[in-house]
Amino acid sequence: MNELTEFTLAEARDGLAKKQFSAVELTQAHIDRIAKSSALNAYVLETPEKALEMAAASDAKINAGEARPLEGLPIGVKDLFCTKGVRTTACSNILGDFIPPYESTVTQNLWDDGAVMLGKLNNDEFAMGSSNETSRFGPVVNPWKANGTELVPGGSSGGSSAAVAARLGIAATATDTGGSIRQPAAFTGTVGLKPTYGRCSRWGIVAFASSLDQAGPITHTVRDAAMMLQSMASFDKRDTTSVERAVPDYEAALTGDIKGLRVGIPAEYRVDNMPAEIEALWQQGIDWLKAAGAEIVDVSLPHTKYALPAYYIIAPAEASSNLARYDGVRYGARKNGTDIDDMYAQTRAAGFGDEVKRRVMIGTYALSAGYYDAYYVKALQVRRLIAEDFTKAYEKCDVLLTPTTPSAAFPIGKNIEDPLEMYLNDVFTVTVNLAGLPGISVPAGVDGDGLPLGLQLIGQAFGEETLLRSAAVLEEAAGFDAQPQDWWSA
Amino acid sequence: MSVDEKMVRRIANLARIGVTDDELPALAKELSAILGFVEQLSEVDTDGVKPLTSAVENKIRGREDVVSDGGYAQDVLANAPEKDDEYFSVPKVVE
Amino acid sequence: MSDNQNLIAGATGDWEIVLGLEVHAQIASNAKLFSGASTEFGAEPNSQVSLVDAAMPGMLPVINWFCVEQAVRTGLGLKAQVNNYSVFDRKNYFYPDLPQGYQISQFQQPIVGEGAIEIDLEDGAVKEIGIERLHLEQDAGKSLHDQHPDMSFVDLNRSGVALMEIVSHPDMRSAAEAQAYVKKLRAILRYLGTCDGNMEQGSLRADVNVSVRRPGDALGTRCEIKNVNSIRFIGQAIEYEARRQIDLIEDGGTVEQQTRLFDPKTGQTRAMRSKEEAHDYRYFPDPDLLPLTFSQEFVDDIAKHLPELPDDKKARFVNDYGLTPYDAGVLVGEAENAAFFEAAAAGRDAKAVANMVIGSVFAGLNKSDLAIADSPVSADQVGQLVDLIADDTVSGRTAKEVFELMFEAGPDQGKDPATIIEEKGLKQVTDSGAIEAAVDEVIAANPDKVAQAKERPKMAGWFVGQVMQATGGKANPQAVNTLVMQKLGLD
User: Fold this and answer.
1) Cβ–Cβ contacts within 10 Å for residue A377, how many?
2) Chain A 356-385, residues with CB within 8 Å of chain C CB atoms
3) pLDDT-based confidence at residue A220 (cuts at 50, 70, 90)
4) At what angle do helices C65-77 and C175-192 cross, to 10 degrees?
5) What's the pLDDT tens digit per position in A374-422?
6) What is the pTM of this model?
7) Domains of chain A from N-terminus onward
8) What is the DSSP letter of C89?
9) What is the mean pLDDT of residues A321-341?
10) What is the pLDDT of residue A333?
11) Which chains does C contact via 3+ CB–CB distances below 8 A?
């Protein structure tokens, strides 16, 4: 086990500053580790030459005393972010070998701060999924195993979570539309942060559901998440939904002090058939925060149970329109047809996987004449009620504490045949996207099989500082230090 | 709410996703199950509730009327599956 | 309510045509509606296409605020309701020149609501045509279907250009009314500067909705003739389509609701390839944008700076210059023409100026296919010539000669009228002594005609003609006439 792959971002930043090792050495160590870890299928495209180039440039900067905030730190990029000159596929066949002539704002921010790109990470096709089993490149395997079974790393950012957990990158970019950062983080014992909607720019990120998508980091620690968000977040004029608001110093917010913080416990998150371990962990979290000086408040989010059905109308509806551009005309893979409409039909039938097709069709149906009011409008009305639930709750508390997922990571293949069963993975996370709020998953314990479990903190809009501060305290109290045993190295 | 195979055909056509006859039954079943799941929204009283499209308070921002983009036909056409010189080419469209 | 003069005779009785127009006007702006690419006409294919216009993955729209201003300006010019809150919706359908697979448009809440424009009918009457709404939307790219047997080619330069879609109420009852509507709308847009109205280049196109009915009946089924791009074709398409529908119904058939295309070569309309589910556009508010809102101050500021519009200018010309409504109407057709007239008319007989501008200047420009900006004769020179007629330096007839010399290509083109008159010795002879002498000469030389004239007074005209000839056309015709009548004893 190479020490150079054992660091957090903060530790590596420190080591580089102290010249304990070079950026090139740090990056090389990760490149070597990735090369031996194909069994996990976390990376869909490795970019070692580019990474070493960037690392060398970082060394020059460090030596000149001009180190930028993430100088020389090697990270992976979810294949949903368009990377200039580097193949980007959203893990879908329909994008073929698309090479974007442009870089997403979020990743450009990271490169501008000196980070190094190790490669593109696997994800569920078009970010639609909770297990990373729908990718054109095949499933990602969770570095965590129980009883010798291969488990899912969560989704859609399964490549990101698996890579960080297996130390194939110190951090990773990811996106979250219904839980796709937080749930995989919980399944892999990592930290996953979804910022407030509009905090990070969506420009250059393959769009799934425009009003829900948000970029965020998956990291080892809350401090690392703060470092990543610092860089990823920005106001972008090219994104009308980007909010013009200064990016505060997130690391400075990690004071360790939550005395007087009011932590809300939403009653409706105690769902039927909730596994006892999850219930226990949640209670454990409550106790930790209380011990740290927080005030625990019972709150109610009455429309919680309607969040999943509302999400499964709104997200597919927006997706059905966002994915209409994948038609084989201007980029991606084309299947010829007898005429233009046949070409479209063949191209999209061959290019989209089953889950994507299902969601596009549900979305098309929900928007179609005669059904629009009953489905789409209704879902948006329920969305407002859900958002108002949070607003009311936040009159009595500052953050909310809930479990992240209803279970630990499950075996590959278990739920893939049953879409509805798969959707239930998002039951604790989806409300947060609908309300546009920030949420973070912190690894808090393990289950009976030794698999990681996460706790979720939900903040107020643009309340990432309070959220991160609370999360850091929770992380400290939990003291999660379990590691996956390396079974995957070649 | 369940959808029959005829409706699935209609949706697939609107969405330009080719579906073979063999695929129809399974699709109809899956889509019906999902629609059955979302049906529970009808339980919620939404009288007088304004639909929420934008999760976060924000006002539309515009830009100046200056030409600041375009002029890179090479990049625009670079990934085209089929092209003819400066045009994208597609199977003939009959109007 | 039907205008009897507009009824069409069918085999079994009279029919009324009902017409509504949806005009697409390209907004005069430098950049597109949601992207910073250029809108200039005639560029190399795909060279005015941004990543957003090409609908690349992850691309997002940002609105060009100037286009919003132009739409508000147009709404005010159409005396319409401007909505401070409106919404952009996605109109979803698949077509190769629509890269996103949807068009960003406005469906339920457009930026402009009800308005009206007045059209001038041939008999001088004025009719009000209602406008239902105006909304902002993206234009699509262009497909070429006739370059290759199996392939169509797509150029996205036009994709994303800002359009105003202006929807009229179905208030028109004849091809002439529809043409007058488009002409007037075009003039208003050009006056406002919000659209250049160039139909040949496609900056202004009309979708014409045509239906027929027996006078007094409910509305018939309508067919939409898409993308008609000249006023002449609008007339032809309506004539053909109305006749087609009438014949169809009278033969026992029913009109199907269809989208049709007009073929200028054949003068006929034909049905477009029928698209199944063609009308389920699944409109929903675009989640990449926010509602379009602006303050009342924004609107008021635009209103304050509106130019004088055609109707107001016409009324002013009638009131202040004493012109006939017809002449005023002709002069205000283009703002530049009206400006030319006013420059020439300043401080002189406006009617005389109007006659020369309409009769000579416009006639000359039409013949040479020139715009007023390229007129060889300036407004000032028109004014000078009118003055020279007024002070009897030249006769009206000679003035026409002078004008032609000023206008036509040749050594005298562009010269001041006084210069030409001088150089060519065209001054009118007004010296009564000289004229009297000429009259006396002709009378003396034609005693028999003098006798005839006493019987038939009309013969005086012959004498006038002879005197004019003898003086090389330069004698003042009124003076000649007076003297001839006097000398013949006919006054």
Assistant:
1) 17
2) 364, 367-369, 372, 376
3) very high
4) 130
5) 999 999 999 999 999 999 999 999 999 999 999 999 999 998 888 888 8
6) 0.93
7) 3-255 (3.90.1300.10)
8) E
9) 96
10) 97
11) A, B
Q: Average pLDDT of C246-275?
A: 91
Question: What are the percentages of helix, strand and coil residues in chain A, rounded to 5?
Answer: 40, 15, 45
3-state helix, strand and coil shares in percent for chain B, rounded to the nearest 5: 40, 10, 50
Q: Are B34 and A377 an interchain contact pair (Cβ–Cβ within 8 Å)?
A: no
Q: Which residue of chain C is at minimal alpha-carbon distance from A342?
A: C94
C2 has pLDDT over 50: no
Buried b (16+ CB within 10 A) or exposed e, C297-322: ebbeebeeeeeebbbebbebbbeebe
Which chain B residues are within 8 Å of A99, Cβ to Cβ?
A: 78-79
CB contacts, 8 Å: A336 with chain B: 91
A1-20 residues touching B, CB cutoff 8 A: none
Q: What is the tens place of the pLDDT at every residue in A238-258? A: 999 999 999 999 999 999 999
Fold of C432-487: Arc Repressor Mutant, subunit A (1.10.10)
Determine the pLDDT at residue C274.
Answer: 63
Crossing angle, helix B5-14 and helix A354-367, to 10 degrees? Answer: 90
Q: Three-state SS string across C142-185, please?
A: EEECCCCCCEEEEECCCCCCEEEEEEECCCECCHHHHHHHHHHH
Give the count of Cβ contacts less than 8 A between chain A and C: 99
pLDDT in tens, B40-92: 999 999 999 999 988 787 889 999 999 999 999 999 999 999 999 899 999 99
Question: CA–CA separation, A128 vs A177, rounded Å?
Answer: 9
- Other CB atoms within a 10 A radius of the CB of residue C346 amount to 12
Angle at C479 between CA C474 and CA C484, to 5 degrees: 105
Length of chain A: 490
Predicted confidence at residue C424, as pLDDT, reads 86
Catalytic residues of A: 78, 156, 180
The pLDDT of residue C1: 44
Beta carbons of A124 and A131 less than 8 angstroms apart: yes
Whether C275 shows a pLDDT value over 70: the answer reads no
Cα Rg, chain B, nearest whole Å: 22
pLDDT in tens, C227-257: 999 999 999 999 999 999 999 999 999 999 9
Domains of chain B listed by start with CATH number? 5-39 (1.10.20)
Q: How many CB atoms lie within 10 A of CB C216?
A: 8
pLDDT at C453 over 90: no
CA distance A354 to A348: 11
A 21-80 residues with CB < 8 A to C: none
Chain C neighbors of A344, CB-CB under 8 A = 94
Distance CA C217, CA C155 (A): 46
Nearest Cα residue in chain A from B64: A237
A153 contacts A161 by C-beta, under 8 angstroms: yes
With beta carbons less than 8 A apart as the criterion, state whether A211 and A318 touch.
yes
The reported pLDDT for the residue numbered C476 is: 85
Q: Which one of A240, A317, A367 has the shortest CB-CB distance to C60? A: A240
Facing A330 at nearest CB: one of C55, C94, C290: C55
The Cα-based distances of B42 to A67, A306, A364, B35, B46 in angstroms read 56, 10, 19, 12, 9
Among B59, B65, B92, beta carbon nearest to C290:
B59
**Which tokens go with A91?**
């893990």
ipTM of the complex: 0.96
**Domain map of chain C by residue range?**
4-301, 308-424, 432-487
Task: Please name the amino acid found at residue C148.
Answer: H
Option in B10, B76, B87 nearest C153 (CB): B87
Q: Return the ∠ at Cα C465 (arms to C464 and C470), rounded to 5°.
A: 100
Two structure tokens written together for B87: 């045009």
